Amino acid sequence: MPYRYLVLLDSFTDQASPDSKTLHAQLVACGMECRLSLSGLKLYVGKETPSLALPGVGLIVGQVFPRAGDTSSSARPPTDLHPNPEQLLLARYWGEYIAILGGRHADEPARILRDPSGGAPCIYSIDGRRGFVASNVSIAEALGLCERRVDWDAVTHSLVFPHWRSARTALRGIRELLPGCMMRMTGRGVAEEAVWSPWDFVRPAERHHCPADAATSVREAVTTAVSAWADLDRSVLLELSGGLDSSIVGACLRDSEAKVACCTLTTPLSGTDERPYARHVATLLGEALHTLHIGADGLNLDFPPPAGAVMPGMTPVQERVDAALTAAAEHHGARSFMSGAGGDTVFCFLGNASPAADAFRYAGPSAGFSAVQDISALHGCTLPRAIGLTARKLLRGPKPSRPANLAFLGQDARLTEPMPHPWLEAPRDARIGDREWLTALAGTQCYPDGTARNRFRPVRFPLLSQPVVEACLRVPTWMWVADGRNRAIARAAFANKLPPLILNRRSKGSYVPFAGLLYARYRTGMLRFLEDGQLASRNLLDVAALRAFMSSDVPPKDVSFLRIFDLCMVENWVRHQGTGRGSSGLPAGLRPPARIDRQTAY
């Protein structure tokens, strides 16, 4: 785990308490040390975990970088962050961090801020003045501070709205502090608030009017983020998909002094072979391209999910890919993974007519009609068809934030609305495209759930870093489809950095056929896995519908079988949790510390 920390509250910090002494000894034995002590709060951090003291303010756990061009910033935060340290941190710095901030007065509650990228995890269980905040639930579990008890209401939610994030986790009494949010220890519990919002960067006053300026801003932000992580890690495994996003990350590594190992994945199906494209980027870096072959022999449905996963997030296909990348990092001695994941979302690849609708409504008829032409060229439809789609988008508004998926679910799994997320609280005058864009952006917070490879090495997602997200949000949606090209501003930003073959590429290989191959081979075992599982025993699955669907072959181009992988993902996660039952979201029962195995891996 790249970051290890544990915040203990009140009764666990009493020096005279036997529990406090025992906890301290156990934490020290596991390589953690107390780096901050405030009124009613102690922070323990793993010896390998970076931290930075903020004199008179608190402490940062994780990595922070100064904003490029901010002359008020230095390599370290200033000594005086008063009167609003959280706002100054968000404005002048970025990175992957949790900031533990003391009150300005003795009676003012402590605060914990999580950076907007979500790169440093943060879960907690607090009841009044008693509880903990941690980087990983396994730390608290190993210390006897909580138990893994499944929250079946939240599990049901993950079935209906897969790969969706909210503050409520699928473990009873365990909540997550979402990226860009801050929690205050009130003494009666916790008060959460969003102190960073993507909506602040899509306001008309913040948007670019010139595409060239927008491209320059995006290029500088992406280059800064990639270079900062590469210079820090010094040795990275670059995951090349052959597409635009990972290629942009690769191009930014060209001037880095970091050692870069380039790898790409292949499967038995030719449609997933991205080597002709990935090789161009490797050549650009002067490196060899290493191929990781993902075979179709065997499908592991019952595997340990990431130890810190408080929600289902890793499918059987992801588990296989993760294992291959982990082995490659070991072989090359890489200190971190670097991925272009999230680029489609950050670079506003919406795939519908909402950018044209935004242009009509906010930039005028001329810009609107130009955007309609761009939409027509982008999606290969006639101009009348593009006009009709734009008009319908203007009349009907944005698509639902997250439509419910009730396929193969039982009568006890009927929900219609997703759990709330602060980024979905749009202002009244929000643009249609911006609403859909920010909904998709919130969905990227699930990415860490699908990566077990971050246990010993961090996975860097530079395109999801705060400066990149902010720079991209300042670009109006219709600029992203200029000249009928998706992610147009990103292409313009790196036009002189990428090989033409990649810069002008419109398509990309898909792993859906490979998933279809695995499904066709192992659907009998997948059906048995679900029939005999806990979801079926709780009437959360429509077993008869599953049997009927899985007894017949999948028609060509039908991707409905992918739903089965998501169901297996949830079933597997549930099987690997504790045996506690119940479905309430009440605080977990905090119990006295138990003995801990010093070899426990968390």
TrEMBL record:
The EC number(s) this enzyme carries: 6.3.5.4
Recorded catalytic activity of this chain's protein: L-aspartate + L-glutamine + ATP + H2O = L-asparagine + L-glutamate + AMP + diphosphate + H(+)
Domain of life, per lineage: Bacteria
Enzyme class: ligase
PANTHER family in the cross-refs: ASPARAGINE SYNTHETASE, ASPARAGINE SYNTHETASE (GLUTAMINE-HYDROLYZING)
Name of the protein: asparagine synthase (glutamine-hydrolyzing)
Domain Asparagine synthetase, residue spans: 218-574
Origin species: Luteimonas endophytica
CDD domains tied to this protein: Asn_synthase_B_C (cd01991)
Renumbered residue ranges of the record's region Disordered: 579-602
SUPFAM superfamilies: Adenine nucleotide alpha hydrolases-like (SSF52402), N-terminal nucleophile aminohydrolases (Ntn hydrolases) (SSF56235)
Listed InterPro entries: Asn_synthase, ASN_synthetase/amidase, Ntn_hydrolases_N, Rossmann-like_a/b/a_fold
Pathway where it operates: Amino-acid biosynthesis; L-asparagine biosynthesis; L-asparagine from L-aspartate (L-Gln route): step 1/1
